[in-house]
Amino acid sequence: MKKGMKKINGQYDFERKWGQKAKDIAEQDNTTTEAIYSRVARFGSPYQRKAKPGMWELQYCKTMWELSEELDMHPLSLINRHHTSGSVYKTASGKSHPSRGTGDRSQWESSPNYKKLPWLHELHPDHDAWRKGELDYTKYGV
To answer: Contact 20/28 with Cβ under 8 angstroms?
Structure first.
């Protein structure tokens, strides 16, 4: 046991406060327990992965990779559609367009950023409000 850690009723302070062991959260996010402790020190919660949401997370409440899977488009095609029409859900002509398959996904799915986790963990208190687009970002400095 590390110095300064107390075990009360079979639980350490972290587990009593957050409802899960740091090791369990780290396994869910495929990271280390030190990274989880760092999140608590930086953001005040082990369930917040980044200080602020990215551009895609702000506008669409999804990561670019989630949008790519939803629309079955290559990420670069998604970026191009966003820049030409202002929305990933519309073509340059402004009409809503069903997605088209991109063929072999294995090339871009092998990217180290593929399946990148969203900025908030599912257990974060603001996660549902963020996904619905109802989150007030002022407390996050956005």
So the answer is: no
Structural contact between residues 63 and 56, judged by C-beta atoms closer than 8 angstroms: yes
Q: pTM for the complete prediction?
A: 0.72
Token digits for 12?
């350490």
* CA separation for the pair 94, 81 (Å, rounded): 11
Could you identify the residue written with the tokens 């619905």? 132
**φ and ψ of 78, to 5 deg:** -65, -45
The count of C-alpha atoms lying within 13 angstroms of the C-alpha of 92, restricted to the half-sphere facing its C-beta, is: 6
pLDDT in tens, 60-93: 999 988 898 888 888 888 899 999 888 888 866 6
How far is it, in rounded angstroms, from Cα 12 to Cα 50?
Answer: 25
- The C-alpha atoms of residue 58 and residue 69 are separated, in whole angstroms, by 18
